[in-house]
Protein 1
Amino acid sequence: MHDAATQWVVFTDLDDTLLDEQTYSWSAARSGLELLAGRSIPLVLVTSKTLAEVEPLRRDMRLDGPFIVENGAAVFVPPDSGWPEATDLPEVAGYRCRLFGRPYAEARRFMASQAARLGARGFGDMTIDEISARTALPADAAGRAAERLFTEPCAVEPDRLAELDALARRAGFRILEGGRFYHVVAAGQDKGAAVRWLIAAYQRRWPGRRIITVGVGDSPNDLDFLSVVDAPVIVRRPDGTHIRTDGLPQVLLAAGIGPAGWNLAIHRLLGDGR
Ligand SMILES: [Mg+2]
């Protein structure tokens, strides 16, 4: 299984998984990141975050490969990264982009025309100060969270949620529950579809290698991408629990919260001469 023809690829959620819930720091996972870099194992970020939020994280983590933003709305492939099929993809913000979502303006139109009647408010209705207060992000980071290309995080009263979801579905969207917000996303997008496309792209890039995939997440909206990897991992939530993983075979329940659990799982799966 660990011969030269084996190529591991690791897919990971960010919020509450690789990033600490309170501090947004990944420092507890540093040695696991170094392990992956030392073995030239690609680490693919699969996140609800925006391109503007992911770019500084990729620089800090020294990642140079593809990544998935806004809950599977798009796979971004960096230019000049040697991906044969990437030149056929449209260019967005300086990257090659495989699009699964819809343009942000369409989510905003839905918010303004329908969701607003239910009292739902999206990032586009909030000031940077309000986003900062609701997320505990500093103002500059909150500004990057507001630089949306596809999906709209929103706040809605729980008793209006079912109604909002019904309206969203009629308009070709659906409502996805995230850690702090609900997200208006295109009906056809999820993290799993984006990850499945990227696994196939890796296989085309390295036809002679056997691709083995790891996926790490913490919450129900990660289950669709964890179900398409070979080795799914769930880290503990901030309260110490694991989410239910019924129907997810051979899942590894990491023995730590967020990035600490991430680090333990990566060392267990890939460490010590494997
Ligand atoms: Mg998460």
Protein 2
Amino acid sequence: MDFSLSDEHLELRRQMREIMTATVTAEVIDETHRSGTNHAPGFIEALGDAGILARAMPGPGQDPVDMWLVSSEAEKFGAPFDAGGMATSIAGVLAQLGTDEQRRRITPGLLSGRELVCFGLTEPDGGSDLPRIKTRAVRNETDDGWIINGAKMWTTMGHVADWVFLLARSDASAGRYGGFTTFIIPMSTPGITVDPVWTMGTERSNATFYDDVRVGDECLVGEAHEGWRTMGIMLAFERGLGNTGALTPLLRRFAQWATESGTIDDPLVRDHMAQLAIEAQVAELLTQRTVWTIATGEGPGTEGSVAKVYATEAYQRAARWAQATAGADGLLRFHEAGAAADGWIDYDVRHSTPQTLQGGTSEINRNNIAERQFGLPRMR
Ligand SMILES: Cc1cc2nc3c(=O)[nH]c(=O)nc-3n(C[C@H](O)[C@H](O)[C@H](O)COP(=O)(O)OP(=O)(O)OC[C@H]3O[C@@H](n4cnc5c(N)ncnc54)[C@H](O)[C@@H]3O)c2cc1C
């Protein structure tokens, strides 16, 4: 395994750092916390203008190291990249399964950072077990279009997105994985409503409702009733590359606070910080392993699940340890007088919990590893 970065990748990293330093200021981060919308338009648009979102798009013919480098640099910096990650994933899906018309009409907006897409997959009764979703897409015989009815849960970015990538059941008689259809639909389509859902991590997500939403075949992604194939491609893009680098900024902020407060004089604290630095490095290596398997055509296997479980649980353990170490000051929020690391420790504790859920829970990823890596029996 060769870990060195080429000159081209080093240049990409330099560009990323330059853009983040210029666009992800303390005021911008404050605004994401105030609004709960983990999106910094100036940052994502600058990535679009520099052609970086196009480079970070996953899929055949793309450089997976570019994709990893962009999300990894953003996470290490603490820059909000969720909108960029969703846009590049869907651009990658459209590159493989979309029509020429969709690639002309939708992809440029996504890769410029000026149009956002949200994921309408999870439902109140179907998160881990996606085949249980109940949102229905029914053929409208009169105009050859579709009528969609249902409710989605956790549609993050739904309140600012231009598009929703939606999974619906189009043929209930087609067995567990048959009869799904995926759509990409303008959020402005009549019949779509968005209600806020506030998470403990301060992030705003949404419940979205689809009442007699009428769309034409131009909104289909892939073939009708073949949506499970589309989902396989999309979920493979999502797993393992994102949400694995949060330990690094946590450790950086904790180290600064521990130095300023004198907590670092305690040898047990220093010892534990060294352990966290090791765990951050392991998380990065596991993520690189996922990239490597994709780059060499071996993946995606279970590497993404391994990286996600390890990294998000290490982040959660670290945040809780940091809070216990900071004591009462670790419970104070951003800008409250005396808040440890100016409120970041409290934030990391709250933010690290949803991280082990979104994009596939730890339990589901463990099941995936058990079944696919060790051939253990399915328990459901
Ligand atoms: C902050 C946040 C943002 C999100 N953003 C989006 C988004 O933008 N778009 C979107 O579509 N979804 C989004 N999600 C949804 C996310 O993907 C789901 O929460 C996740 O897949 C789990 O589904 P669920 O919440 O329905 O939990 P459930 O599936 O109801 O699971 C509940 C618990 O049971 C466990 N469990 C379930 N089945 C099994 C099993 N077979 N074996 C062992 N344990 C099991 C789970 O691990 C979990 O602990 C988001 C979630 C969060 C928290």
